[in-house]
Write a sequence for this structure.
C-alpha cells in the first residue's frame, strides 16, 4: 500500500504536472513565434501542439500502420542482434581465445557510421526489409554483448568457490551462477539497444522504402509547410516507438530478473 | 562425547604455504601439523595475517599447499571435496540474489541431483534447524545479516557434509547477535554432529564453541599453541560467566603475549 501511494503522489503527479506544463509552454512559445515575433515559417519551427495532435487524430490509422511496420522490423532486428550479442558474450566468456579474436572486430564494427553503412548494406541486399532488420540487429548486438560479458565475468569469487566446494560441474556453474548473474548486464544492454534499433530502422527507411514511419516522415518533410503538422506527428510516433521499446524491455526485466537492488522495496521488511 | 573411539578425520602434516612473486616471497604458513578427530569442534584462532583463513582454505582444497600433506579420512583434500565431504560457510553469506531462501539452501542438493520432492523435504527440515521457518520464500536481501548467515549454514548442512568449515562466519555481526548465533550453532551441531573447523579472531568465541583451540601467530603463520577446552556441554549463557571460561580467556590471551 505504501508503495502504491509513493507512486501516486511521489512520481505520477509530478510527471503529469511536468507534462502538462511542457505542453502549455510549447503552445505558448508557438503562439509567440507565430503571432508576436511573426517569424517566417514559424509553424515549421514549432507548430501548435493542438494542430499536431489533430493531424495525429486525423491520420491515426496511417501513423499506427506505418509505425507498426517500423516497430516490427526494428523488433525483428533487435531480437536477432540481441541473440547474436548474447551468444558472442557467452562464447567470449568461455574462451579468452575467442575474446581476443572477436573483441577488436566487435569494437571496430561500432566505429562505422550507421549513416554510411545503411546505404552500403542496402546496395548489397537490395531489400528494404532485410536492410532494416540487419541495421537494427547490428546496432543491438554490441551493447548487449559488452554488458552481458561483464555480467558473466563479474561473478564474486566466493560465489564461485562455493560451487567449487560442491564439486559442481562446469555447466552447473554456468546455469546456476554465471547466466543468472549476467541478467542485469544483459538487460542494461538491451535497454540501451532497444530505442537505438528503432532509430536505426527509421534511418534505413529514410534512404528509400515503401513502408514505415520513416517513409511518411520523409514524404511530409518534402511536401513542405503544408504538411508540417503531419511531419511532426511522425517524429512523435518515432519517439513513442523508442519509448515503447524501452518500456517493453524494462517490463520484461522486472518479470525475469525482479531480484535486482533497484526493484527492491525501500521500506522492505528487513527483520 | 568421549565414548566413541576417535580416529583422525583431518590430518595435516608439516603443511606450508608460500606465496612467491618476482619481488618477494611470503611465508603464509609454516610447518603446520594437527589432527582433528571425527565429530570434534575445533577453532583456528589468531590475529589478522596469521594464516588461519589460508589454513581453512587449504583444508577445503580451495588452494593447495606448497609443502606438506593434508589427509581427510585418509584421502587427499581434493578427493574429499569431490566426494562432497565439505560444507563451507564464508565470512559473507554469499547467497545468490536471484534465489529465494529455500532455493539457496537447495543449491548444493541440485548439484547432487537430488529429486525435487526430496529437496523440498530437506529444505523444510533445515529451515527448522536454523529456526527460519516461514522465511523460505523470502529473498536474501529481505533478511538481516544474522538470518542470512543462518541461511548460509543451512545451505552448508544441506548436503550432510562430514566436515563443516566456517571462516569467521559471525565476524560481521554485532556481539549480541554473534553470541546468540554461537549458542544456536552449538545446538545445531549437537543435532548433526559433524566435524567443525571454525576460524575466528575472537578468543571468547573460540573458547565457547570448541573442544580445542589452535592458536596461530603471524609472520610466518604458525601454530603457537593448542588449548583444550574442557568446559562441559551443553554450553549456554552460564558457561560464559563461569570462572573456568575466564581462566581460559586469560590463558589464551597470555599465549599471545609472548608473540
Amino acid at each position: 500500500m505504501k508503495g502504491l501511494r509513493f507512486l501516486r503522489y511521489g512520481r505520477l503527479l509530478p510527471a503529469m504536472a511536468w507534462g502538462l506544463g511542457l505542453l502549455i509552454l510549447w503552445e505558448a512559445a508557438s503562439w509567440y513565434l507565430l503571432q508576436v515575433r511573426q517569424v517566417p515559417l514559424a509553424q515549421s519551427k514549432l507548430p501548435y501542439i493542438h494542430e499536431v495532435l489533430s493531424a495525429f487524430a486525423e491520420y491515426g490509422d496511417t501513423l499506427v500502420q506505418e509505425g507498426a511496420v517500423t516497430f516490427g522490423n526494428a523488433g525483428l532486428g533487435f531480437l536477432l542482434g540481441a541473440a547474436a550479442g548474447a551468444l558472442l558474450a557467452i562464447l567470449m566468456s568461455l574462451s579468452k581465445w575467442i575474446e581476443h579474436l572477436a573483441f577488436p572486430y566487435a569494437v571496430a564494427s561500432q566505429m562505422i557510421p550507421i549513416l554510411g553503412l545503411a546505404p552500403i548494406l542496402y546496395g548489397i541486399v537490395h531489400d528494404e526489409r532485410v536492410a532494416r532488420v540487419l541495421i537494427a540487429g547490428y546496432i543491438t548486438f554490441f551493447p548487449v554483448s559488452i554488458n552481458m560479458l561483464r555480467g558473466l565475468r563479474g561473478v564474486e569469487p566466493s560465489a564461485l568457490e562455493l560451487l567449487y566446494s560442491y564439486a559442481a560441474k562446469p555447466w552447473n556453474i554456468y546455469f546456476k551462477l554465471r547466466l543468472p548473474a549476467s541478467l542485469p548486464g544483459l538487460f542494461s544492454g538491451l535497454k540501451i539497444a532497444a530505442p537505438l534499433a528503432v532509430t536505426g530502422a527509421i534511418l534505413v527507411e529514410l534512404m528509400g522504402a515503401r513502408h514505415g514511419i520513416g517513409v511518411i516522415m520523409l514524404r511530409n518533410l518534402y511536401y513542405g509547410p503544408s504538411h508540417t503538422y503531419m511531419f511532426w506527428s511522425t517524429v512523435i510516433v518515432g519517439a513513442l516507438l523508442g519509448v515503447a521499446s524501452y518500456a517493453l524491455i524494462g517490463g520484461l526485466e522486472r518479470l525475469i530478473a525482479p531480484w535486482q537492488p533497484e526493484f527492491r522495496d525501500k521500506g522492505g521488511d528487513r527483520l | 562425547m568421549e565414548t566413541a573411539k576417535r580416529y583422525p578425520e583431518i590430518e595435516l602434516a608439516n603443511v606450508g604455504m608460500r606465496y612467491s612473486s618476482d619481488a618477494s616471497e611470503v611465508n603464509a604458513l609454516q610447518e603446520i601439523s594437527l589432527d582433528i578427530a571425527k565429530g570434534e569442534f575445533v577453532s583456528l584462532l589468531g590475529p589478522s595475517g596469521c594464516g588461519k583463513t589460508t589454513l581453512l582454505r587449504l583444508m577445503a582444497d580451495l588452494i593447495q599447499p606448497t609443502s606438506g600433506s593434508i589427509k581427510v579420512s585418509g584421502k587427499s583434500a581434493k578427493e574429499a571435496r569431490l566426494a562432497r565431504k565439505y560444507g563451507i560457510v564464508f565470512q559473507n553469506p554469499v547467497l545468490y540474489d536471484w534465489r529465494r531462501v529455500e532455493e539457496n539452501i537447495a543449491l548444493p542438493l541440485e548439484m547432487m541431483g537430488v529429486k525435487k520432492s526430496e529437496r523440498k523435504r530437506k529444505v523444510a527440515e533445515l529451515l527448522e534447524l536454523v529456526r527460519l521457518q516461514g522465511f523460505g520464500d523470502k529473498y536474501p536481501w529481505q533478511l538481516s545479516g544474522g538470518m542470512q548467515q543462518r541461511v548460509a549454514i543451512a545451505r552448508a548442512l544441506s548436503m550432510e557434509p562430514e566436515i563443516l568449515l566456517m571462516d569467521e562466519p559471525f565476524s560481521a555481526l554485532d556481539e549480541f547477535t554473534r553470541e546468540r548465533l554461537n549458542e544456536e550453532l552449538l545446538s545445531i551441531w549437537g543435532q548433526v554432529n559433524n566435524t567443525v573447523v571454525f576460524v575466528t579472531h575472537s578468543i571468547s568465541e573460540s573458547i565457547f564453541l570448541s573442544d580445542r583451540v589452535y592458536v596461530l601467530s603471524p609472520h610466518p603463520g604458525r601454530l603457537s599453541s593448542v588449548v583444550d577446552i574442557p568446559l562441559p556441554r551443553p554450553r549456554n549463557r552460564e558457561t560464559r560467566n563461569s570462572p573456568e571460561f575466564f581462566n581460559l580467556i586469560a590463558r589464551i590471551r597470555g599465549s599471545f603475549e609472548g608473540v
User: Anything to note?
Assistant: The longest strand of chain B covers residues 8-20.
